[in-house]
Every structure is written in structure tokens, then in C-alpha cells.
């Protein structure tokens, strides 16, 4: 099967450190565009059978103007940038990538947990500011340092990623509790959120953002948590009510938080968490998934999805 493809926003994936040879081998032609503006989408896809997109929107109106299009490969797990119904109606197969970032995100989650437990960022800043140099003792211990061993970790979202976080946390001697999510199948050993939250020392989020989980961690949730507890969010920003989190941190309802995600990304118009300037809040720029190994696995999955389509053995289709 002779196919031409266009990757509309490969710059979201490649930091000049990836090998695209397996993906190139799937097509007669592969055009890589670092980024694509909305008004450029139709022009760049009009002569290809395969569109590859990370975040560039391919909506129903666009799809209707692309009669040659046969396959859309999403270089992500989330498929909300593609109108799946419109694609199916036009006979276009849509495939995503899955599980490529499990090791990277789990590692980042533990990194954030450890940074909060050890006051790592605050100690680094203290040294940079010369405070250790002025200490009367050989050590400088102004900020609390906690051991993860013996602490309880609550996990919201116990799929492949949540289970990997649990495995790593158990290596540190942590106890694991699993949250049951609204309108989702109950886990055999799961607890309802109002039962789980008072017990946890750390709460880590690994569930999708859905109408049921939007703002699920809000002022009511923070009231149930220990004032010594920490929140970790490497899932989606909208799961946590950001203004309520700021209030909880300022009022000492919880001890600290770390998030890799915000409700709007990038936060060009500001964000209540960024503006808060809180010493017990760590924010990273949606980087948890971004190890070179994770991003290369995504390239390989894109190639696998293309080969599956060409051979008639379609995999990872999201618009069945």
C-alpha cells in the first residue's frame, strides 16, 4: 500500500534526540512539520493519506475537506483533538499511543513525592541563598524531612500507571490504598474517596479527566485530608480545583502539593497556582512523560500502528 503522511506537530515530541527511521519506513513520503497553525491543517493534509498529530485539532469540518485521508495517528493517548465520529463516518481509522510513558510518569511521580518529603527544593534554594554557609552547625535542618517508609499512599486511578507507582512506592516501604472513582467499576480492595482521604499521607492522581473527575479534589476533599498530607498530580489539571488547592495550602489544610499539570497549558494567561508563590508547592511543566525513552516508544508505536493499518491488522484504534 502506497501512503504519504504528514506529521503536523512533531516538535511537541522531538527535542532533536529521536530516531524516526521506523516511522519513515512505513510511508513512501513522510513530511515532518515542527508545528502547524489551524489555518495550515487542510493545506498540509490535502495530498496525504495519513495524518499524524499530537495536539493539532482535526475536527469534523476539516475531515470533510480531506477526501484522501485514510488514517489518523495520534501521538498521544488522549484523542480529544480529533473528531472520532466524523472520522468514522468518513471511513478513516484513528489510532492512538498507549502506555509509552508509564515508566517516565511513575518515576516523576516518585520524584515529586521525594522532593516534598525531603523539602528538597527549599534546601536547594537555601544553599543557593547562602544560608547553609552561615549556619553555626555542620548541617542545616530548618525544613522538615520525612521518610516515605511506613507512610500511606492513596492512588486515584489504578490502571497500568497507578499500579507502577504503587510498585515503586512499596519499594520505599509505603502502604497502598486504592480509591474507587465515581461511575467506574469498583476495585476489589478499593475505598470510597471519603473513606480513603482521611487515611493517606500522600494522594497521587492517575485517572483521566472526565465530567465525573473534574474538580473532584476540591475544598471538601482537602477538609477530609490530614493537615500533614501531600497531594501529587501527574494526571490532568482539571481534576484538582486549583483555587481550592491554593486556599488549602495557605490555610495549612494539607502540608504540600506537587503538580505536573494545570487546567490550561501552557499557562500564558497566568494561573492561580503560579501566582501563589507558595514554598510548599512544586510545579513542573507537563514534563513527567518526557523521557527520551518514553518519546522514542511513542515513535515506535506510531510505526506499529501504521504497519497494522497497512497489513489489515489494525491496533490501538480509538474510533471503532
Automatic annotation (TrEMBL):
Keywords: NAD, Oxidoreductase. Pfam families: 2-Hacid_dh, 2-Hacid_dh_C. Coiled coil: none annotated. InterPro entries: D-iso_2-hydroxyacid_DH_PdxB, D-isomer_2_OHA_DH_cat_dom, D-isomer_DH_NAD-bd, NAD(P)-bd_dom_sf. Residues 110-288 form the D-isomer specific 2-hydroxyacid dehydrogenase NAD-binding domain. Signal peptide: none annotated. One of its GO terms (molecular function) is oxidoreductase activity, acting on the CH-OH group of donors, NAD or NADP as acceptor. Residues 23-316 form the D-isomer specific 2-hydroxyacid dehydrogenase catalytic domain. It comes from the Bacteria. PANTHER family: D-ISOMER SPECIFIC 2-HYDROXYACID DEHYDROGENASE CATALYTIC DOMAIN-CONTAINING PROTEIN-RELATED, D-ISOMER SPECIFIC 2-HYDROXYACID DEHYDROGENASE FAMILY PROTEIN (AFU_ORTHOLOGUE AFUA_1G13630). NCBIfam families: PRK06487.1 (NF005069). Belongs to the D-isomer specific 2-hydroxyacid dehydrogenase family. This is 2-hydroxyacid dehydrogenase. It comes from Acinetobacter ursingii.
Amino acid at each position: 500500500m502506497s501512503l504519504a503522511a504528514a506529521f503536523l506537530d512533531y516538535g511537541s515530541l522531538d527535542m532533536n534526540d529521536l530516531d524516526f527511521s521506523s516511522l519513515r519506513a512505513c510511508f513512501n513520503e513522510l513530511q515532518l512539520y515542527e508545528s502547524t497553525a489551524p489555518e495550515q491543517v487542510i493545506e498540509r493534509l490535502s495530498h496525504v493519506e495519513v495524518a499524524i498529530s499530537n495536539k493539532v485539532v482535526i475536527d469534523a469540518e476539516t475531515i470533510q475537506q480531506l477526501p484522501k485521508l485514510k488514517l489518523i495517528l495520534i501521538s498521544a493517548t488522549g484523542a480529544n483533538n480529533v473528531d472520532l465520529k466524523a472520522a468514522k463516518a468518513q471511513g478513516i481509522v484513528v489510532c492512538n499511543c498507549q502506555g509509552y510513558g508509564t515508566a517516565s510518569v511513575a518515576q516523576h511521580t516518585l520524584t515529586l513525592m521525594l522532593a516534598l518529603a525531603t523539602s528538597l527544593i527549599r534546601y536547594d534554594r537555601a544553599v543557593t541563598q547562602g544560608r547553609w554557609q552561615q549556619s553555626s552547625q555542620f548541617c542545616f535542618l530548618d525544613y522538615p524531612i520525612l521518610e516515605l517508609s511506613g507512610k500511606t499512599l492513596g492512588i486515584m486511578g489504578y490502571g497500568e500507571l497507578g499500579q507502577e507507582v504503587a510498585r515503586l512506592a512499596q519499594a520505599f516501604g509505603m502502604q497502598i490504598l486504592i480509591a474507587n472513582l465515581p461511575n467506574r467499576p469498583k476495585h476489589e480492595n478499593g475505598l470510597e474517596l471519603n473513606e480513603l482521604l482521611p487515611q493517606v499521607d500522600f494522594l497521587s492522581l492517575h485517572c483521566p479527566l472526565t465530567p465525573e473527575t473534574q474538580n473532584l479534589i476540591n475544598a471538601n476533599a482537602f477538609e477530609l485530608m490530614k493537615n500533614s498530607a501531600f497531594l501529587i498530580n501527574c494526571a490532568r489539571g482539571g481534576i484538582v480545583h486549583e483555587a481550592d488547592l491554593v486556599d488549602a495550602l495557605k490555610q495549612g489544610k494539607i502540608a504540600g502539593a506537587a503538580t505536573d499539570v494545570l487546567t490550561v497549558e501552557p499557562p500564558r494567561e497566568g494561573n492561580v497556582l503560579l501566582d501563589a508563590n507558595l514554598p510548599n508547592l512544586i510545579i513542573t511543566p507537563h514534563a513527567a512523560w518526557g523521557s527520551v525513552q518514553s518519546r522514542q516508544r511513542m515513535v515506535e508505536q506510531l510505526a506499529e500502528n501504521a504497519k497494522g493499518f497497512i497489513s489489515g491488522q489494525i491496533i490501538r484504534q480509538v474510533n471503532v
